[in-house]
Amino acid sequence: MRDVQNDRDHRNLPIDKVGIKNLRYPIKVLDRQNGFQHTVATINMYVDLPDRYKGTHMSRFVEMLHLFRPEVSLKKITELLAQMKEHLNAASAHIEVSFAYFIEKLAPVSGAPGLMDYDCRFLGSSNHDNKTDLVLEVVVPISSVCPCSKEISEVGAHNQRGQVRLQARFKKFIWIEDMVHLVESAASCDVYSVLKRVDEKYVTEKGYNNPKFVEDIVRDVAFVLQRDPNITWFSVSAENFESIHNHSAFAHILSGPPPVF
Q: What is the pTM of this model?
C-alpha cells in the first residue's frame, strides 16, 4: 500500500513542528506521598519534518505514547522524545503534557482535609544533537492583601485571589509538591478547599498581617530559586485578579533566556 507521507514534496520548505494536539490520555505521575497519582492529561507531540517529505505519520505519535502507558513522568520524557525521533525519522522532537495534580491539604486550624488541584505541565524537547530540555510548570492559586490599601485605610484592606505560574529547569529531579509549597509560602496566604469558621478567621488574619504586592510574591519566589543549586533556570509570574479594579495586577521574573533548540 502506497505511503503518501513519504512522497517527495517539491516546495523545498522544511516544517519546524508537525504532529498532534489536544490528545486526552490517562497517565500516572510521581506522587511524593502515595508513590503515583492517576490523572488525565492533554498532550501535544511534535517533530520536525524535512523539506523532502510530504507529511509525517500521525498515528505513530499515539502508538509511541501507548508504549509508555500509563506512566508519563519527567524521567520518562527523555526516552519518549528519543523514540519519537527514531520512529519518525526526525532531528528534533517536542512534547507538552498538561494535567491536573491533586494534593491533600489540611485546614490550618481544624485540620479538616480537602483536595487542592493544581494545573501542571511537563515540557520536553530534544534537538539534533540529542540534547534534552525539560521544564516543569505549576500554576498555584493564592490570596493576597494589598500593602498600600492596608496602609492608607483606617479599617481593613482589599484582598483578592490570584495565581502564580512557576516554570523551572533543574539538574536533578524536583517534586511538584516542593514547587507548590514554595509559591504558597510567598503569598499573603494560601488557598484551601475546605475551611471551618476557625480556619476562615485564621486565613483572614494571616493575610491581613502579611500583605503582598505581586512584585513581592515573584521576588520572594525568585530569591529562593536563585540560591537553590538544583535550579538552572526559572520563570515566575504572578497575577492578582483585583477585587476593586477592572484589571489584573501582574509581575514576572525570568532568570535568563531559555535554551533555543
A: 0.90
Which residue do the cell numbers 492596608 mark?
Answer: 150
- Measure Cα distances from 100 to 12, 18, 26, 236 in Å: 41, 26, 11, 19
DSSP states of 189-223: EE--S---HHHHHHHHHHHHTS---HHHHHHHHHH
Render pLDDT for 119-142 as a digit per residue (tens, 0 to 9).
999 999 999 888 899 999 999 999
CATH top-level class for 10-254? alpha beta
Domain extents in the chain: 10-254
Cα 115 to Cα 189: distance, rounded to the nearest angstrom: 17
Spatial distance between the Cα atoms of 179 and 187, rounded to a whole number of angstroms = 13
CA 211, 215, 216, 222 dihedral sign is positive
